[in-house]
Every structure is written in structure tokens, then in C-alpha cells.
Amino acid sequence: MTFSSFFLWLLLIFSVISFHVNAFSGTYGINYGRIADNIPSPESVVTLLKAAKIKNIRIYDANQAVLKAFSGSGIEIIVGLGNENLKDISVGEDRAMNWIKANVDPYLPGTKIRGIAVGNEILGGTDLELSEVLLPAAKNVYSALERLGLAKLIEVSSPHSEAVFANSFPPSACVFREDVSQFMKPLLQFFSQIGSPFYINAYPFLAYKNDPEHIDLNYATFKSNRGIHDAKTNLHYDNMFDAMVDAAYAALEKAGFPKMDVIVSETGWASRGDENEAGADVKNAKTYNKNLRKRLLKKKGTPYRPKKPVKAYIFALFNENLKPGPTSERNFGLFKADGSIAYEIGFTGLVPSAASPSLHSFKVCVS
Fold first, then answer.
1. Phi/psi at 193 (5° precision)
2. If we measure between CA atoms, which residue out of 184, 169, 160 comes closest to residue 237?
3. C-beta separation of 212 from 278 below 8 A
4. Nearest-CA neighbor of 144 among 89, 86, 67, 79?
5. Which domain of life is it from (predicted)?
6. Are 104 and 68 in contact (CB under 8 A)?
7. Is 275 one of the annotated active-site residues of the chain?
8. Are 218 and 225 within 8 A, CB to CB?
9. Per-position pLDDT tens, the chain of length 367
10. Is 266 a residue of the active site?
11. CB 220 within 8 A of CB 203
């Protein structure tokens, strides 16, 4: 082998080994949901996020107004391919190509689209057909990105809810549900091949709301508490968030994917709720989100993965007045619809509130 061919061989090996799209360059991101008719315009949101020094966001679609507004902002975005599109995209690569050419390619490179989330919380749900088309849809999206030369710039992933697990306590006992595994394992195999992480929507709030008699509120909100001991790993957990992340790592390990990273795609705490929604109030939301922000900005790992800094996208940027369901669903925002802060955790609002100065006035989003 000549020196030049040996050098090319080394380059090829290195490119294969090092191939991994980093869609989340920081540790603290936010979900920018827009199921509302009274929230600030995308241009005002860019101002808000820059002031908060938030550089990573997720949106649940590929809205043109949002993607245009974020051009030149430097903020990294994961766009969403909605559940309603999966069956069509799963039919063939050409369908995925058409979607990408319409919703992603026109905004590059000005808008930093770093990932495509294919569906949201599909596995573990009630729609078996969606579970069946998730992997073909993800493969078609990736193939289309490859053909466009974008596969090394844009990550393909799919976020899951806690419903994919059979149990998650203690963390080391966590496994995927048997009925989910038939879909999950091939999906994980594919994501492992292309270097994508496992995204989980982890909500201590929901766990506490469903069982306030047996879950310590302090444990759920990062306050001082006795914590829990995992006898199998001999690890101590002083907060539920870390336990949820490590439960996902344990499930991945048992499924045969011990090297796959875990990223929290959603976590948050509602500041209002119905009478039967335990813990949904401003005090607990402020405590959880303030302590979570401190924890993420330290760039530390979990007890089971101490060298792997935890990354999470907070849910959500705004209270969304048109979301269906219980009152809590409309009150996860760090900011109110008028752009003021919902409670003080260190950010500045677009308009003044009792606890915060303002950045400037804003336009209401009508898209």
C-alpha cells in the first residue's frame, strides 16, 4: 500500500468512526410550541432567546415564518415531521425528498436546522399503524438527506414518552415494554448505525401528579431530600430527573445499545392546573425549572453516566392557550403569552412583569 492510498484509507476509517451529527451543542434548550393565538411573533422570539442566551430549540413542525425569522440568528433548531405525515413519508424516499425540499432545504444554511424529529411519542401509544410506519419514515428521511448531502449536518431522531417503558423504578430495572420492543429494537438499530441519540420526554411533574402520596415533592423538584438507593448499581439518586435519564440508559443497555446517548427532548412543570392536578402551581414550577437550569448549566452527568453531560429541552417557551386537555397543558411556559416571564428563574421578558424588566415591545404572532 502506497503512502497516499494508506492516507486515504485512514481518512475513510476516521470519517466512519467520527461520524455523528451533534444537533444539540449546548446542554440547555427549549421547546417552542405555538398552539396559541396570542404569543409573540417569531422575530420577537429570536430577540427573547438571544437575551436568554438559549442557542438550541425544538419546534413541532417546519413553519416557514419561524424558519425565516431564525435565519442568521445562530440558534440551532430541530424541526418536527408531524405524526400526521408519517404514513405518507413511509411510502417512499421521494415523499421524504419532497418534504425536505419544501420544508428544510430552502432555509439552509442561513437557518441552522440541525435535526428532524420524525414523529412524536409514537411508540407506546394506541396507533399501531403509526408504530409500523415510524422506522420506514425515518429511513426515507435519512436517505433523502444523504442524497442531498445533508446527512452529516442534520440528525434524524424520534422522541419517546415514558410509556415505552415497562417499569422505571429503580432506574437499573428499567426495560422497554414487550409490545414496544418489536418496533423499538429495529428503530434503535437504525439510529445506532447513523449515530442518533435516544430522545425521551421525561416529566417528574407527571409522575408526581399521578402519585403524590408516594412521591416526595422535594425529590421531584431538586430540593433537599433523602433520595433513593438503587441496590443493583449501588447508586444514590437525590432527584427524579436524573433517575429518569438513567432508567433510559438501563433500558437501552438491556436492549443491546449501551453506547447510545440519551437526550431529554421535553421536561417541565406546569404553573397552573385543575383541582385534581397535584403540584401544578407557580411555586413548584419555579422551583423545578430554576433548579433544573442550574443543574444543566453545570454540564454534569448522572450517577450511572457521570462523564456524559445531561442535555435537555425545557417544555415550554410559552403558555399555549389553544392546547386541549387539562389546565396544566396550557401552563407549562417559562413565559406568558404577552412575553413577560411566568416566574423568575433568571430570564428577562419582552414586556415588564412584577418580577422582571423588559427587552422591548413585541408583535403578536398570527400565523
1. -65, -35
2. 169
3. yes
4. 89
5. Eukaryota
6. no
7. no
8. yes
9. 454 444 444 444 444 444 568 889 899 999 999 999 999 999 999 999 999 999 999 999 999 999 999 999 999 999 999 999 999 999 999 999 999 999 999 999 999 999 999 999 999 999 999 999 999 999 999 999 999 999 999 999 999 999 999 988 999 999 999 999 999 999 999 999 999 999 999 999 999 999 999 999 999 999 999 999 999 999 999 999 999 999 999 999 999 999 999 999 999 999 999 999 999 999 999 999 999 999 999 999 999 999 999 999 999 999 999 999 999 999 999 999 888 999 999 998 887 765 555 554 444 454 4
10. yes
11. no
Q: Which three cell numbers stand for residue 268?
A: 417541565
- The pairing of strands 76-81 and 56-58 is parallel
Q: What's 357's DSSP letter?
A: -
- CB atoms near residue 294 (< 10 Å): 13
DSSP assignment of 229-261: EETTTTEEESSHHHHHHHHHHHHHHHHT-TT--
Q: Report how far residue 256's alpha carbon sits from residue 273's, in angstroms, rounded to the nearest whole number.
A: 40
What would the grid cell of residue 155 be? Answer: 440528525
Give the amino acid at 314. I
Give the number of other CB atoms < 10 A from CB of residue 119.
Answer: 25
The catalytically annotated residue of 121, 155, 162, 320 is 121
Which amino acid is located at 335 in the chain?
A: F
CA atoms within 13 A on the CB side of 155: 26
- How far is the C-alpha of 222 from the C-alpha of 11, rounded, in Å? 46
- Say if CB 349 and CB 356 are below 8 A apart: yes
Q: Which of 76, 266, 277, 320 is catalytic?
A: 266
* Closest CA relative to residue 294, chosen from 228, 241, 229: 241
